[in-house]
Amino acid sequence: MRKVGFIGLGNMGKGMCKNLILKGNQLTVFDVNQDAMQLFKGKATLAPSPLEVLKNSEVIFLSLPNSTVVEKIMNEFLNEGVRGKIFVDTSTSYPMSTRSLHAKIKAAGGGLVDSPLIAGPAEADRGELIAVAAGDKEDIDKVDDLLRCYCKHYDYVGPSGNGHLIKIAQNFAGLSQALIYAQLYPIIAKYGINPQELYKSLNNEVFSNWVFQFYSEKYIKKNYHMDFALELGLKDLNYMKKLCDDLNIPGFLLDGAIDLCRVALKEGKGKELDFSHAGNTMYEYVGLD
């Protein structure tokens, strides 16, 4: 039985944490949302703070909203001492931040693995996620059994930060495609072709993939239930934009994707919205809401 910590029990974290427990590990958990923690009452130790998770665990998993939150917690841990600890960041974090943290943690006697995820909450709950893992190979070997508690497969992709680079590339490709269909269905509908008919014309070996199927259903049914937060998608696209800015190159189509997300998010007036709400924004623009 391994002593494992888990910080961040949201849509993805709660499923991963559940499977770590089911595989016989001793978990200490923390989330700023007390309701999320109560799901694990009697199954894990509920910690009053992240530092308590650090003290009780040999390996600590992070499933957090962004690099700013990851950096804040990891700096607290570095001040406390991280010798002998391994941290697994499953968040979609900014790669250059990850590489900086890796160097600091390594110098302090610990290890950091960046292991972002592919798929969604349902796969996390079933323990069938696909992931990548980056960092020092010896650290990844030490957490291999834990990664396999919730992953059906993961790939080692090299040194620190590579996992988060790949995740940003995947999200840029996938989210951009989702936004393409958010525009296509309303605009083509306005010119007289029913969204279901457009779907049939695109549902073939050339265009069909997971993103197409997942978001087409949302746009056609106008059912924008929460699966992946628009705010998080915008954050991921902004990370891609920062990679471009750091190279002093334009974002080109990335800029349009960011603009649409910002407009859709503004319409929410502070409410949490699914990424597919961009489709609702476009239906409103063309007068078919």
UniProtKB/TrEMBL annotation:
Give the matching Pfam families: NAD_binding_11, NAD_binding_2
Keywords for this entry? Answer: NAD, Oxidoreductase
Q: Which residues form the 6-phosphogluconate dehydrogenase NADP-binding domain?
A: 3-158
Q: Please list the residue ranges annotated as the 3-hydroxyisobutyrate dehydrogenase-like NAD-binding domain.
A: 161-277
Q: Name one GO molecular function term.
A: 2-hydroxy-3-oxopropionate reductase activity
Q: Where is the active site?
A: 167
Tell me its EC number(s), please: 1.1.1.60
The record's SUPFAM superfamilies line, in alphabetical order, gives:
6-phosphogluconate dehydrogenase C-terminal domain-like, NAD(P)-binding Rossmann-fold domains
This chain belongs to the protein called 2-hydroxy-3-oxopropionate reductase
Organism of this sequence: Atribacter laminatus
Q: Which gene encodes it?
A: garR
